[in-house]
Design a protein that fits this description.
Low-confidence stretches: none
Distance between the termini: 50 Å
CATH superfamily: Lipoprotein like domain
Mean pLDDT: 85
Number of domains: 1
Oligomer: single chain
Helix content: 25-40%
CATH architecture: 2-Layer Sandwich
Order of helices and strands: HEHEEEH
């Protein structure tokens, strides 16, 4: 093969790679949080479910055509992460699991969303400080799960 033919093949391959569609779909920014929650049923941990429910309701739009009914089931697991030589607890680990069933009323479709987050905190010398750390960790993990759920809802709405 001559250099000119090799050059033409290289240009053809390069043009093909540039113009080929990779299947990437741009998210429509106008459809972010474009849902209206008609009803939310919560079970499991009351505080976590309440926070997730409020975060979803704050971001819903009443004028949207995407009407949803959401069932939220939350679980919180607290386990001992570490002990010292004296067999005293030094660290705890908390894992929060949220299982959602999303029903699109208008479309008759159902989706399940499962999200979890985990973190750890150390035991302090005073019990109140330890409780404060635990509450802050739970709040942070709940916010993280709420954000992930909203992202998944937006993806589901953009796909449909």
């Amino acid at each position: 093969m001559t250099n000119k033919i090799k050059f033409n093949y290289a240009i053809a391959i390069f043009l093909f790679l540039i113009t080929a569609n990779c299947g990437f779909k741009i998210i429509d920014k106008t459809n972010i949080n474009n849902y209206n929650i008609k009803d939310i049923v919560t079970t499991g941990d009351i505080r976590i479910s309440y926070k997730i429910k409020n975060n979803l309701l704050i971001n819903s739009k009443k004028e949207s055509n995407n009407n949803l009914i959401i069932n939220i089931e939350t679980k919180r697991k607290k386990e001992i992460k570490e002990k010292n030589i004296k067999n005293e607890i030094v660290k705890y680990q908390i894992k929060i699991i949220a299982n959602l069933e999303v029903n699109f009323i208008n479309k008759g479709q159902k989706f399940k969303i499962n999200q979890s987050a985990e973190g750890e905190y150390s035991v302090e010398s005073t019990y109140s400080t330890t409780l404060t750390k635990e509450k802050k960790l739970i709040e942070s993990l709940t916010e993280d799960i709420s954000d992930k759920i909203q992202n998944k809802l937006n993806l589901l709405i953009n796909d449909n």
